[in-house]
Amino acid sequence: MLGQHTRARLQRITALVAGWTAVAVVAIPATAQEPGRLPATDELRVCTPGDYPPYSVGDGAGGYVGIDIELIRGLADVLHRPIRFIPVTWATLATDFAPQQCDVAVGGISDLPARRGFSDFSISYGIDGKAPITRRASGADYATIAQINQPGVRVIANRGGTNEAFARKNFPDAQLTLWNDNLTLFDEIDQGRVDVFVTDSVEGRYRVRSHPGLQVLHPERPFDSFRKVFLLKQNDPVLATTVNAWLATQLATGAVDHSFARWIGDDAPISGN
Q: Going by C-beta distance under 8 Å and a sequence separation of 6 or more, which residues neighbour residue 98?
């Protein structure tokens, strides 16, 4: 099950959108309500970095799995629209989104003001925050920002996303390494080549399951707090209403809660991704 802190926050989100859901669903235009009228070639173009489990990660067979992927596949099924996944990177998300003709971008994306310059946002489906990932042998040596922001501390961050921005802002005195491959980044900590990685607590809780030598410090008390959203094509009210109604329904019925529990709960399977 989800921790009490995360569950309480998701319940507050559900309460906010539950009353809105019925209105939003009614507001969806007829073409969205009656998917049989949509052309078979009307693809839902979904852009994703695909390297941020448990939100979105490659499945090893050319596709993607994760919490965001389950949600967007469910929406596409309801609309009877085929999905076309388009790989993008965190570093180029701002410049790729419009040229790649993304309808939606998913994959653990945080609500940042800078991203509103090139996309619209969905309603939030979750709240997360940054927490340190270290070796178990390090104990609580890197539990605070002050402990991490020291000249001898080796910090790592994936290039181009909120983790890099957080590290640059909060650890100017530490030794920062930027890593291009988020999927191999945890191996650098595991092998002792760096000391700490500060990332979303949900990702940390997922990844340490396949790295038993690592730990997430105080995931229930992250350094900050931010909303998770889908990026939406700008100035498309039909798309926005459809996506928001779908997410609101999934929140109100507990489907989002169950998805998080499947991926990071106590009984979640250990994955090598």
A: 118, 234
- The secondary structure of 114-181 as a DSSP string is GGGGT-EE----EEE-EEEEEEGGGTTTT-SHHHHSSTT-EEEEETTSHHHHHHHHH-TTSEEEEES-
Spatial CB neighbours of 203, under 8 Å, sequence gap ≥ 6: 52, 53, 54, 55, 108
Residue 165 main-chain phi, psi, to 5 deg: -60, -40
- Residue-range definition of the domain harbouring residue 171: 130-216
What is the percent of the chain with per-residue pLDDT over 90, rounded to a whole number?
75
The pLDDT of residue 165 is: 94
Residues of the chain with pLDDT under 70: 1-41, 266-273
Residues 52, 88 contacting (CB under 8 angstroms): no
For residue 98, what are its two tokens?
């419009």
Number of domains comprising the chain: 2
Q: Are residues 10 and 95 in the same domain?
A: yes
